[in-house]
Amino acid sequence: MADVFDILLDDDFDLSMRDGDFVIGESTAQHEQLLLLLNKGEVKQFPTATVGAVEYIDDEGQSALVQEIAEKFAADGMQVNKVAVESGIINTDAYYK
Predict the structure, then answer these.
(1) Contact at 8 Å (CB) between 54 and 39?
(2) Is residue 4 within 8 Å of residue 28, measured between CB atoms?
(3) Burial level of 92, CB count in 10 A (0-12/13-18/19+)?
(4) Tens of pLDDT along 44-58?
């Protein structure tokens, strides 16, 4: 399992700052969150890299969402062990190789 370090975002997805500098830290959870929440096309350089989970809200089952999450996480370089949607909550077990 590789630790991934990047510039961190705060709870409002703004750049996290401390003493006038960017905060850098382990960012795997942040990467997962962004891959899930950003809609397709929102990352100009990689328009199909994200899931856009909100688009799956009205789907009958969660199988398409689970498959999309697993595919996008794997394409981003993660080892995906589990993806599940339980009571409307997305649970993942994935890490960068």
Answers:
(1) yes
(2) yes
(3) buried
(4) 999 999 999 999 988
Predicted confidence (pLDDT) at residue 1 exceeds the cutoff of 80? no
Q: What angle do CA 44, 56, 90 make, to 5 degrees?
A: 95
Torsion-angle region of 25 (φ positive above 0: left; ψ -120 to 50: alpha; else: beta) = beta
Q: Per-residue pLDDT tens for 4-56? A: 999 999 999 999 999 999 999 999 999 999 999 999 999 999 999 999 999 99
Cα three-residue angle 75-24-35, rounded to 5 degrees? 25
User: How is the chain split into domains, by residue range?
Assistant: 5-96
CA of residue 24 relative to chain centroid, distance: 18
